[in-house]
């Protein structure tokens, strides 16, 4: 019925209802349009999938789907932060906060993060610009995590852990500070809506590297983390191999690419590598796109030797990824396209 045919009071009510409906539609559109704030916690340097996962996250940000609010590192090696920073600069986002673990695991050197950082051009300047010159000078990870969380809206942050649980376990125990008056567990419960992690092997429960390397931290994470947790087990990434042909063909849009450069340093080419960390990143930002299926709700616990046990339980906060043959093909195609996408800076 046209509003002009209504009485004065009825017309006013009609216009108010239309206005409310338009506001609801606008709010829904804005909610969909907002990029997901992401914190990426990585053991960059231990395996090349960390570098590929970071590339995937930058491409998702270029598409407006997510926004890196911070990157924290659990590998206690000074080159890790340097490499993360030069990758961020390559994608046009050199201001992303980076935090590093103190007294952490795996301090051993790694060719794939060191050699790209050491490359020099004809004038003696680094081929890959960066701000961080030495990871030992970067801020401590927990302080970066707390600042990043405190700066985001409640219940919006997605955290992606693809290394050890060291930093996130320490975050849970962190005290109030200048960033937030909340203790760590309370801050996580308020700000985080999902934790996507590489951990475990399902349903076998076989020991998995990220869990057993810092077992006390993994146990703490599974028992105390207050939000939903979705685990991408060892079996997921192992069944989806990133192809060497992509490195050889898809990154040639520039002479020097820090992801392809690192990939070539990790092992002798050509080789295909499991996509462990990439799967956690993809699920975290695109959980409803049909790349994976999910286990029932339940709880995951970490036992002796790094074994993981999943116990189904209605209302449990933990689930793990499952992938079938059809999903596997779609997932690999998406990962290759995202990892090799040229930089498109949106900020």
- Strand content is 15-25%
Flag low-confidence runs: 27-31
- How do the SSEs run, as a string of H and E? HEHEHEHHEHHEHHEHEHHEHEEEEH
General form: globular
State the total count of DSSP E strands: 12
- Total helical elements: 14
Largest sheet: 8 strands, mixed
What would you report as the Rg, rounded to the nearest angstrom? Answer: 22 Å
Strand order of the main beta sheet, please?
A: 3-2-1-4-5-6-12-9
Mean pLDDT across all residues, rounded? 93
- Intertermini distance: 46 Å
Structural class: alpha/beta
Helix content: 40-55%
What does this molecule look like?
The protein has 347 residues and is of the alpha/beta class. It is built from 14 helices and 12 strands. It has an 8-stranded mixed sheet with strand order 3-2-1-4-5-6-12-9, with helices on both faces. A two-stranded antiparallel sheet has the order 7-8. Strands 10-11 form a two-stranded antiparallel ribbon. Helix 3 links the parallel strand 2 and strand 3. The longest helix has 26 residues. The chain is globular, with a radius of gyration of 22 Å. About 1% of the residues have low confidence.
């Amino acid at each position: 019925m046209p509003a002009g045919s209504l009485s004065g009071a009825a017309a006013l009510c009609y216009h108010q209802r239309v206005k409310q409906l338009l506001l609801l539609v606008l709010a829904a559109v804005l909610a969909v349009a907002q990029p997901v704030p992401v914190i990426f916690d990585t053991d960059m340097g231990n395996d090349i999938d960390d570098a590929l996962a970071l590339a995937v996250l930058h491409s998702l940000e270029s598409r407006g789907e997510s926004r890196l609010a911070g990157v924290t590192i659990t590998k206690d090696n000074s080159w890790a932060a340097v490499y993360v920073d030069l990758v961020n600069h390559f994608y046009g986002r050199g201001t992303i906060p980076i935090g590093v673990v103190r007294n952490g695991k795996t301090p051993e050197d790694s060719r794939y993060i060191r050699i790209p950082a050491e490359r020099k051009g004809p004038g003696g300047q680094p081929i890959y610009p960066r701000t961080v010159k030495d990871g030992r000078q970067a801020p401590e990870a927990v302080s970066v995590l707390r600042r990043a969380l405190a700066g985001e809206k409640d219940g919006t942050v997605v955290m992606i852990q693809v290394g050890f649980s060291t930093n996130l376990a320490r975050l849970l125990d962190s005290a109030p500070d200048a960033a937030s008056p909340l203790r760590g567990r309370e801050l996580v419960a308020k700000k985080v809506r999902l934790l996507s992690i590489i951990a475990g092997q399902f349903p076998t429960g076989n020991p998995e590297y990220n869990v057993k390397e810092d077992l006390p931290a993994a146990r703490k994470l599974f028992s105390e983390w207050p939000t939903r947790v979705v685990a991408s087990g060892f079996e997921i990434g192992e069944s989806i191999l990133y192809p060497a042909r992509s490195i050889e063909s898809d990154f040639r849009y520039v002479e020097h690419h820090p992801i392809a450069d690192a990939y070539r340093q990790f092992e002798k080419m050509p080789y295909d590598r499991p996509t462990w960390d990439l799967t956690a990143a993809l699920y975290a930002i695109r959980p409803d796109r049909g790349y994976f299926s999910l286990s029932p709700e339940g709880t995951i616990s970490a036992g002796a030797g790094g074994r993981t046990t999943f116990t189904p339980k209605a209302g449990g906060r933990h689930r793990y990824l499952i992938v079938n043959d059809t999903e596997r093909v779609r997932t690999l195609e998406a990962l290759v396209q995202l990892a090799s996408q040229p930089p498109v800076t949106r900020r």
